[in-house]
UniProtKB/TrEMBL annotation:
Identification of the protein by name: Uncharacterized protein
Alphabetized GO MF terms: UDP-glycosyltransferase activity
Pfam families per the UniProt record, alphabetical: UDPGT (PF00201)
Organism: Streptomyces fulvorobeus
Keyword terms: Glycosyltransferase, Transferase
PANTHER family hit by this protein: EG:EG0003.4 PROTEIN-RELATED, FI06409P-RELATED
SUPFAM superfamilies: UDP-Glycosyltransferase/glycogen phosphorylase
Length: 467
């Protein structure tokens, strides 16, 4: 006997850069009245999931508390310095070293398995960094869609030689920050990046970790197919990438990857913003500084950015999203320039970027920020932080929508003022950003993603009766 029940289970880590795009999609399905929506993430995301309900419920399924090894927000300062150092390979190696902890995902896998056994999803929608999510889907044979908040080549290019890759040979390795048009030295660096990544796993310490990983996979019953280099791509029903082809270097994108542009909810997202919109309305020109949830600034860097605001005071205001714990590094209030407004949190970064008085977005160029800034036609100044940020930074500069700081580690005030001033005064940056804005909007965003999801055969075919 058939059943109409076709549950959709979203799975993501609770870090906002990974969680938010899937939240926008879940909310869109709820707005359309789609039944049986579930969202599995850490307890930290419980209130965010509750807020995604519009018409039909989005049920929260708890994966427990955040595991420190899985969340960059919880890493200690020494680890933070290692993963954000300017040597792109050493930073890449540090990220692998600190995040490749096989035992840390055991509890998450078991919790998700219990949720899957209860919900019996017809489809899972899994954030691309959530390894235990797609491992479970592949093992249990559950159809899944992969969500990608980066440029498409990030998940389609192998980090090691001799492995399957959807991009051509010689394509920039993810996290290398290298351009497509490389010098001879850069081509050598690109190949070494792959070889050194492979070499990491041949050290005695890493071999022990791999052995532990093998043991855990066997205990959990994870399918060997889930370990293949491109397993999350090859076994997915579809890959939803929140970008457009023109924001990456050209290569043949596989048919199953659908580029839908930035995932932006209906705006205003936060109409009650405690007077922030009124302040923006009253300004002549605004530079918005927001560096994501992971960035940790030093006292010297905070002081340099205050100086930047002071030097922009002739004609420009600065809105700075600075976490409360880092505001302790600010100079005394009486020494702050009048054109600087500091918020420990803005109710909606999207509302800020959409505001016509905001002319430049000073960002770390994470996947979401990079695409959201350009969605609203804002040129960028980039202080790249880590992993994908350098890749998006080099593409943005090559495509004429951004400039990257020469000294991102030290935050040299002269360097920052120079880049912001150039982006403000050279109209070509704005024109190029507006060009990409049109492309991102035309891609369809949340509406296109929801249409594609609901059009999958697995959701349109008659359901089997539940046991």
């Amino acid at each position: 006997m058939g059943s109409s029940r076709r549950p959709i289970l979203f799975v993501s880590y609770a870090e906002s850069g990974l969680l938010n795009p899937l939240l926008v999609l879940a909310e869109e399905l709820s707005r359309r009245g789609v039944e049986d929506l579930w969202f599995a993430t850490d307890e930290k995301g419980r209130s965010d999931i509750a807020a995604a309900t519009v018409k039909t419920p989005v049920e929260f399924a708890s994966l427990g508390e955040v595991v420190p090894q899985m969340s960059a927000v919880t890493w200690d300062d020494e680890t933070y310095r290692e993963v954000t150092q300017r040597s792109r390979f050493k930073a890449h190696r540090a990220v692998i070293k600190h995040s490749f902890e096989p035992a840390s995902r055991v509890e998450k896998y078991k919790r998700l398995e219990a949720i899957v056994d209860e919900v019996r999803p017809a489809l899972m929608v899994i954030e691309s960094m959530c390894q235990f999510g797609y491992e479970l889907a592949i093992t249990k044979g559950i159809p899944f869609v992969l969500g990608v908040p980066f440029v498409p080549s990030n998940v389609l290019t192998s980090h090691v030689p001799f492995a399957k890759s959807y991009t051509p040979g010689g394509f920039p390795v993810p996290h290398s920050g290298l351009p497509l048009d490389m010098t001879f030295a850069q081509r050598v660096e690109n190949q070494l990046f792959r070889l050194r990544t492979l070499g990491m796993f041949m050290t005695s310490s890493m071999r022990k970790v791999v052995e532990e990983d093998n043991r855990i996979r066997k205990e959990l019953g994870i399918s060997p197919e889930a370990r293949q280099m491109m397993a999350r791509i090859d076994h997915s029903e579809m890959v939803l990438c929140y970008s457009v082809p023109e924001l990456d270097y050209p290569f043949p994108v596989p048919d199953k990857m659908r580029l839908v542009g930035a995932m932006v909810p209906p705006l205003p997202q936060a109409p009650d913003d405690d007077g922030l919109s009124d302040w923006l309305d009253a300004q002549q020109s605004v530079v918005y500084m927001g560096f994501g949830t992971i960035t940790r600034l030093t006292r010297e860097q905070v002081g340099a950015l205050v100086d930047v605001a002071r030097r922009l005071a002739d004609g420009h205001s600065v809105l700075w999203k600075l976490p409360k714990e880092q505001q302790e590094l600010l100079p005394p209030r009486e020494e702050l320039p009048d054109n600087l407004r500091i918020e420990n949190w803005v109710p909606s970064q999207l509302d800020v970027l959409a505001h016509p008085k905001v002319e430049v977005f000073f960002t770390h160029a994470g996947g979401n920020g990079y695409h959201e800034g350009l969605y609203f036609g804002k040129p960028l100044v980039v202080r790249p932080l880590w992993v994908d940020c350098d890749d998006q930074a080099v593409r943005g500069q090559d495509f004429g929508v951004s400039l990257t700081l020469d000294h991102p580690q030290t935050v040299d005030a002269d360097d920052v003022v120079d880049k912001i001033t150039r982006v403000l005064t050279d109209s070509t940056f704005r024109e190029r950003a507006e060009h990409f804005s049109k492309l991102l909007r035309a891609a369809g965003g949340r509406a296109a993603a929801a249409d594609l999801l609901l059009g999958l055969p697995v959701l349109s075919e008659p359901a089997l009766a539940n046991d």
